[in-house]
């Protein structure tokens, strides 16, 4: 995966071949095929791994799934691993990373909305996708603009913006 990520940054996905990956990883081409069907499979596994790392890090840092500590951890982790996530959120990630991240965050938000919603006026689908789209949009903006504000500032602004929603979704 490391060889693939390095090549992704250098050449772009379309120009990478299995031979390139094998050469960079200093292994035989057949060894690559033992683990991956093709470069699309490798991209998929890579995306899955980096989404899981991101979410695992955030899950281990908080008890509540929709609070300031979770957001702060998310931004701090992205800052520590800026280069890889900038690459995966760019066009070189071929959009698959964003889609996978969106689906995973939407699943988490849905759990919070369904389990903790006290307001019958909130549509679970609308609320889930509104909150997920907003969060993904802020994450993309923050990464694409090379961290224009601190993790703490981004978290504080998000919490301020989400206050009207979180009072209905999260037990205070």
TrEMBL record:
Species: Paenibacillus albus
Name the UniProt record assigns to this protein: TetR/AcrR family transcriptional regulator
Superkingdom of origin organism: Bacteria
Single GO MF annotation: DNA binding
Keyword DNA-binding attached: yes
Domain HTH tetR-type: 1-54
Keywords assigned: DNA-binding
One Pfam family it belongs to: TetR_C_8
Known DNA-binding region: 17-36
């Amino acid at each position: 995966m490391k060889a693939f990520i390095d090549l992704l940054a250098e050449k772009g996905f379309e120009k990478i071949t299995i031979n390139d990956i094998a050469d960079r990883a200093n292994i035989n081409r057949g060894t690559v095929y033992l683990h991956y069907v093709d470069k699309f499979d490798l991209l998929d596994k890579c995306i899955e791994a980096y989404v899981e790392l991101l979410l695992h890090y955030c899950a281990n840092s908080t008890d509540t799934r929709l609070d300031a500590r979770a957001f702060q951890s998310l931004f701090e982790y992205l800052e520590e691993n800026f280069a890889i996530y900038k690459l995966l959120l760019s066009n070189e990630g071929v959009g698959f990373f964003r889609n996978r991240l969106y689906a995973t965050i939407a699943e988490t938000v849905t759990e919070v909305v369904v389990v903790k919603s006290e307001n019958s006026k909130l549509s679970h689908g609308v609320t889930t996708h509104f909150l997920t789209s907003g969060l993904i949009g802020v994450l993309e903006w923050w990464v694409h603009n090379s961290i224009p504000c601190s993790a703490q500032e981004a978290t504080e602004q998000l919490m301020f913006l989400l206050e009207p929603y979180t009072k209905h979704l999260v037990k205070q």
